[in-house]
Amino acid sequence: MAKRVAIIGAGCSGLTAIKCCLEEGLEPICFEKSDDIGGLWRYTDTVEDGRASLYRSVVTNSSKEMMCFTDYPMPQDFPAYLHNSKVLEYLTLYVDHFRLLKHIHFKTEVCHVTKSSDFCRTGQWEVRTEKCGIQQMEHFDAVLVCNGQQVDHYLPLDSFPGIHEFKGQYTHSRFYREPKDYHGKTVLVVGTGNSAGDISAEISHTAKQVYLSTRQGSWVVSRISQHGFPIDMVFSTRCYFWITNALPNGLLTMVTEKQMNNWFDHANYGLQPEDRYCEITFSNKNGSSL
């Protein structure tokens, strides 16, 4: 009898987990608390508790060639960078192609996971789920948690003295949906991450004034490189990494900063970071890339 594997979440990781389990002769049962696949990439007009959120206009920062699954390339007619609806369409094609849908239980929330009483002997887990108000307990040989890491937002109000006396509206980007809510308003966007850049540019078309606040500056990189190629395809090659590893840090910093300033002079826009490029890069080696 095949070993049973509980998979929590039917987003990108959950779907690939189902496929991998099937390839290994296992019996995957995927529990998804919403009514559809996609996880983060399924846009909804309202923010759902316990589920990652994105705004209507989100476009990927990774090109389709770099973010697709190796065993299922994206359709050739898809654009280089995908709107979130296209990512969901791709995941739907992936599910249909590998016939994964029958292994997913929708509107089923995993409430509790614990080791079974005879875990030392069987290695099994007890998984309690709830669907339509009815709870059920099942035993599984393994559990894969694929519910993502961007579910809860962080809003450190203590870092903004006087915020509670502020007469206007303050919110986190998790709750942002469309620019029409900021028509005619003066808006301050705190931070220069991907979401901050997207949102400030989008609402600038309807808001009275938009200010983008950055503490230490930031290098801004276009999605498109020279000759129109996606930038991650150009700079994620063995040749590029060989060259960057061979160059002295000082020379690499000078060349790279000059390239990024060819698009626009960061100092003119008050975005020139306090740290040099190599200092930022090496401090982020185990984190997200620039």
Overall 3D form: globular
Tell me how many strands there are.
9
| Radius of gyration, in angstroms, nearest whole number | 23 Å
Average pLDDT over all residues? 90
Bin the strand percentage.
15-25%
Quote the distance from N terminus to C terminus.
47 Å
Q: What is the element string, with H for helices and E for strands?
A: EHEHHEEHEEEEHEHHHH
Q: What is the share of helical residues? A: 25-40%
Q: Note poorly predicted spans.
A: 282-290
TL;DR of this structure?
The protein has about 290 residues and is α/β, with parallel strands linked by helices. A 4-stranded parallel β-sheet has the order 3-2-1-7, covered by helices on one side. A 3-stranded antiparallel β-sheet has the order 4-5-6, with no helix packed on it.
